[in-house]
Specification:
119 residues, mainly alpha, elongated
C-alpha cells in the first residue's frame, strides 16, 4: 500500500470523526469550532486524495462556519453578567395539556375571592 494513500485515508477518517464529535457539542460555539476543524481536515483530505467535490464543499462551508462562530460569540452574555436560567416548565406543561400558559400568580388563591362556578 502506498504511504500517500494511507496518509490521505487517515486525514479522511479524522475529518469524519470530527463531524461525529460535532453531534456531542452542547453549545453553538463548540459546535462551530469543531465544524471549522472538520472543514480544515476535509480540505486537507480532498487535496491529498484529489477529491474536487469534497474540496469545493468544505471550502464553501469553512467561511460560513467562521462567520456563524463569530455571530454566536457576539450573542453570548459577557462573562461578568451571569446568564439567568429561564424556567419554561409550567408553560410547556400547560401547552402539552392543551391549555394556554398561565402566570403563577393567576394560580394562587386570592384572599376574599370566591371560588369559580362549576361548568
Amino acid at each position: 500500500m502506498n504511504a500517500g494513500i494511507a496518509a490521505s485515508d487517515l486525514l479522511g477518517y479524522l475529518a469524519a470523526g470530527l463531524v461525529l464529535v460535532t453531534f456531542l457539542a452542547q453549545s453553538m460555539t463548540a459546535l462551530r469550532a469543531i465544524a471549522i476543524a472538520s472543514n480544515v481536515m476535509f480540505i486537507a483530505y480532498a487535496l491529498a486524495a484529489w477529491l474536487p467535490p469534497v474540496l469545493v464543499l468544505h471550502a464553501l462551508l469553512l467561511p460560513l462556519n467562521v462567520w456563524r462562530l463569530w455571530q454566536a460569540q457576539r450573542l453570548q452574555p459577557a462573562p461578568s453578567e451571569p446568564a439567568r436560567p429561564q424556567s419554561r416548565a409550567p408553560a410547556m406543561a400547560s401547552f402539552r395539556a392543551g391549555l394556554l400558559p398561565v402566570a403563577p400568580s393567576a394560580l394562587a388563591p386570592r384572599i376574599g375571592a370566591r371560588a369559580p362556578k362549576p361548568l
